[in-house]
Amino acid sequence: MEIRIQGVSKAYVSGGNLIKALDNVDLIIPANHIFTLLGPSGCGKTTLLRCIVGLETPDVGEISIGGEVVWSKQKNISIPTEKRGLGMVFQTYAIWPHMNVFDNVAYPLQIRGLSKAEIRQRVAKTLDFVHLAGFEKRPATKLSGGQQQRVALARALVAEPKVILFDEPLSNLDAKLREETRKELRTFLTELKITAVYVTHDRVEALALSDTIAIMREGRIIELGDPKKIYFDAQHRFVADFIGRANLIKATVRSQEGEHTVVDCALGAITCAQHDAPVGSEVTLCIRPEFIQLAKGAAGGTNVVNGRIDSLIFVGEAYETEIRVGEELLLAKIEPDANLAVGSEVSFTLDPAHCLLLSI
Ligand code: ATP
């Protein structure tokens, strides 16, 4: 089901200050999509999610789910949470510790008064789906973190919601389990063909899990796109910086040359992917660390830059190194078998396709 958010604002007064948690948010979340709200702490992600759920009342605007208005200031509509047909999974697993797995998952159906037989059949189907068949009698607290999170997911899914909402559901899991669980979650959600709204401040989680990412800042959605677009083709400096490690270098447009834009910056004249900024204007050159290619021998051609290795850290699958070029210190990710030492003079090349220009 599609979710439409139109002109939604929400302000709080706290300690005498007015906080614009949501500032005129317009957003369409397509049906059967994994849609992630990503942004730094305090940017309004949870407030937006809570407004969709109905746990928070916006000041103005309208929210519709599947074509039905669930909240509208102007139309004086406010459908309560339990009638919005949503499932929710939160950071704290919110499973009941005194119940076993079956009872935890059955609970939403019991309060609806379904028959015992139907409850048994639907719980079995859902536990099977989240790979917890056979765990019915286990006390919920005697499960691993990942299993507990799957119980929480099963409980959200058992009532067959039209939309499922997640608020940082994996943040209590350790790094390895988080990686496994997010892979599983993507598979589950894709198979289910359900609209999922996912809140996180973890960029890798957002990139790995989402069909669409909306980047939020100070109560506003500032950019929206699929993970590759957000990562490779961000429009804002803030987004390019937030979504991954990036070298952001001040530059001035020197010329427009066919498919490319050439800029002057601390690295010299750099040929970049085309950008429509006029000649002479100030821009930001964005280069991801993984696109800095060390030249093996004498390098020639486009965008050859000389520098010196300033720091070198071996992280297993790569070296993370800082290369000094004049006043600029560039973060680079280099193959782990490279023969490097701090202080070595190096040449590297930059593929123009990966030299992204940002106007702000
Ligand atoms: P985090 O990632 O840290 O959970 P968030 O992006 O989810 O952050 P919100 O929880 O939506 O951010 O908060 C947005 C802003 O509104 C913050 O400045 C927060 O301090 C403020 N805020 C949220 N709830 C309240 C409240 N009940 N009273 C006062 N201010 C609030």
Reported for the largest beta sheet, the result is:
6 strands, mixed
Low-pLDDT segments:
none
The fold-level CATH name of the largest domain is Rossmann fold
Order of strands across the main sheet: 7-8-9-3-10-11
Q: Could you give me the name of the CATH homologous superfamily of the largest domain? A: P-loop containing nucleotide triphosphate hydrolases
Distance between the termini: 35 Å
Number of structural units classed as domains: 2
Count of helical stretches: 8
What does this structure look like?
The protein has 360 residues and is α+β, with helices and mostly antiparallel strands. The chain has two domains: 3-241, Rossmann fold (3-Layer(aba) Sandwich); 248-359, OB fold (Dihydrolipoamide Acetyltransferase, E2P). It is 23% helix and 38% strand. It has helices at 45-53, 101-110, 116-129, 145-157, 175-192, 203-209, 227-232, 237-243, and strands spanning 3-14, 17-29, 34-38, 60-65, 68-72, 77-78, 86-89, 163-167, 195-200, 212-217, 220-225, 247-257, 260-265, 268-273, 282-287, 292-294, 304-314, 319-325, 328-334, 345-350, 356-358. A six-stranded mixed beta sheet has the order 7-8-9-3-10-11, with helices on both faces. It has a five-stranded antiparallel beta sheet with strand order 2-1-4-5-6, with helices on one face. A hairpin with a 2-residue loop joins strand 12 (247-257) and strand 13. The radius of gyration is 25 Å and the shape is globular. Adenosine-5'-triphosphate is lined by residues 12, 14, 19, 21, 39, 41-47, 201.
